[in-house]
Amino acid sequence: MTQPLEAGAPVLVLLIEDNRADVRLIQYAMRASPIRKRLQVARDGDEALALLRRRPPFENARRPRLILLDLNLPAMDGRDLLAEIKQDPELKAIPVVVLTTSKSEEDIRRSYEAHANAYVPKPRTLEEFVKTIKLIERFWLATARLPLAWLLCGMLAGARTLHAGVGADDDYPPGDAASSVPAAFDAAGELRDSLAPLSTIPTFLRVFHGSDAARKRRAIQGLARSGNVAAIPYVGAVLLRLDEDQATRIAAAQALGTIGESRIGVYLSEALRDPDPEVRRAAVGALGQAAPLGAETLLEGRLRLDPSWWVRYEAALALGRMRQPFAVGALARAARDDAKAQVRLQAALALGELGGERAASALIAPLFDVDPGVRIGASVGLGEIGGPRVIGLLRGALDGEEDDRVRKMLIISLRRAGR
Prior knowledge:
disordered N terminus, about 425 residues, single chain, mainly alpha
């Protein structure tokens, strides 16, 4: 199964090879494969690095899905190039298959030590060559999965040529840049049915190739309309770009929450791994707002494991707002065991929003928490649930409570529980 983000678009393969005869062989072999692809050729290591790092004259180059690398290259040697690629944080996730005439054990060992993804000696016959290329394609282009965040990281850069009109180099025609943009852009019907006018997307892309952070956030907000599915992959790509500033990524997460629709879940789930806790917190809030499929499981995971108490707090808040009864277990653990009193308090309030006998039972422990704020939260939650059993619990807590603030809230909650 191919990667869903490039459905309908040709996959880019970068061949780094100086031997013209071998280039023609590989081109022939690739034409025999049913997988839609475009082959880009670099003749040496320096040209390959310029392409991969988008140095002049290749500022608008797309990032390849797969690299086929010969070891014996002029200028920069293929072995050194492999090390450069795998040490570059932006390039290291690209699969590199060493395709070379060398069968030296030393070359094989050094290639794998430099983190080559595979080492394939060049076949001797045309028939074997075609078979080998098909096997490589089938695995790396149609079976293997790449990190979603990496697949998205080049999206906006790839779209630049489509709207800036750049394309003087025959190897980079403007129209071909569209193939790096996911199917949401490629599918005219989806754009036509979107609430965003067609002109909005090009404007958005032009803004994101500038450096004005405030304009970027305004552009994101301009696409943040409920049901605007055409905007999802673009806003999602911004959210997952760690080179964008914190406020821009937060705005992207909030925009996805506003847009809603189930497809936002895949972007928000990746954003939960963002190193910035404020971005993770915004992603958690968006999951709670839009409630895409699987949101409850993701929120429970953040509530249990996130190192930032603010993120755990937001996860408890979101679970309460979603009012899903099966979240009681996760909220009960947080209300009882979380190291931060603010999280225990919010989990107790969320249990009150869920309601029911299980939630009432889960609030017994927080009702006697060492922190008075948590005890207040538990009493408020129980007051929301109400019923004879809750009234008994509140009265029992009131008899032993010494903190005046907590006593006042227990009295108020008793009145609410008996209404």
